Amino acid sequence: MTAKLTRRHFLTLSGVTAAGALAYGATRVDWDDLLSAAADSPLASGAGVLVVVTLYGGNDGLNTVVPAADSAYQDARPDLAYRPEEVLDLGDGLGLNPGLKGLKGLWDEKGLAVVRGVGYPTPDHSHFRSMAIWQTASPRTSVPTGWLGRWLDTTGADPLRALSVEPVLPPMLAGAKTAAASLPLGGLKLPTGKLGEAFQALGTPSAGEEPWQARAAKSITDLHSAARILGGAVHDAAEDDPDEKRDKGASAGGASALGAQLDAVAALIEAEVPTRAYSVSLGGFDTHADERDTQQRLLTELDTALTAFAKRLKGTDRGRQAVVLVYSEFGRRVHANASDGTDHGTAGPVFLLGAPVKGGFFGDQPSLTDLDNGDLKQTTDFRDIYATVLQDVLDTDPGKVIEDHRGRIDGLLL
């Protein structure tokens, strides 16, 4: 394991360089660009929206969706395992990590799908290679484009159809002809005091005004909404290597401030921006030591952000069109290591949530005794999930994006 690996280093080494997507601030847009797009061609009624959440570092799936009742799990992790009474019961002998109380509420409402045993053929324990595989959807051959980048290529050249709420685009959004847009969260400040009050008053609608005047007023109101959301964001695009500030589990890249990222995405969906795919991330999951506290802290951050986001999505028609996909590049080894952590593994769970999602378990739970050299055996191919959301959320023939793969997950989306 490399001692320190930043997000940008990963992007450079992953091999995905199409369309200049790795340039700092490539295809960079601001709030005004997005609001103008919403005014000119708003998100169509009924058009699905996909929000991809990447957990960088290799999240330990066995301590996320926990087989606490399985004696093999307890034996493999004597000091790291959660006891049955500690987890949030899902049935089938499984429970959610105690940091995921909000997701347990969504589960109880049939609003959370857990796809079990997700991985890819011939797994690789390298962060670089495994994340490149997940983001390109190409397990056996290196390709220079991401899976959502190829979706962009097949559906038109408009980069605003996909958006990363980060200063550098992830490889998944790099196409051969089109790179998605980027909206870095560096904070947004507006005038305060009497000048600020006067400026905000310009957004007040007036009876009998011309359409262009109403649109100008609305843009001022939207700008103040953006300032409330983005003004507190801590993800500073001017920082060179913000990922290195995380003290544990941070060696595999990814951003923090997930709640701020998802707040921005929610505001854009509510504003009817025509973006159909969004990318956000949370890093720090490379838990080789002292895993329980580190992972539970990160999962609590994930839970808080996702729960608030899901609640907000339910409040608007456009929000109810969105599906959230949460994944990590690999799970961890079954047996704990000598440092109260776990090492790089293979298969793990994937979460999906949103109004179009049918809650429950999908895929088989991997055996903890029938292992592949100490690793879990994959029971669900990750491309099955991609193909399902391409078809049912993004209204695209998966064969145009993922070659030579016909798998789907039946019943996952309503």
UniProtKB/TrEMBL annotation:
<dbReference type="Pfam" id="PF07394">
    <property type="entry name" value="DUF1501"/>
</dbReference>
<feature type="signal peptide">
    <location>
        <begin position="1"/>
        <end position="23"/>
    </location>
</feature>
<protein>
    <submittedName>
        <fullName>Uncharacterized protein (DUF1501 family)</fullName>
    </submittedName>
</protein>
<dbReference type="InterPro" id="IPR006311">
    <property type="entry name" value="TAT_signal"/>
</dbReference>
<feature type="region of interest" description="Disordered">
    <location>
        <begin position="234"/>
        <end position="254"/>
    </location>
</feature>
<dbReference type="InterPro" id="IPR010869">
    <property type="entry name" value="DUF1501"/>
</dbReference>
<keyword id="KW-0732">Signal</keyword>
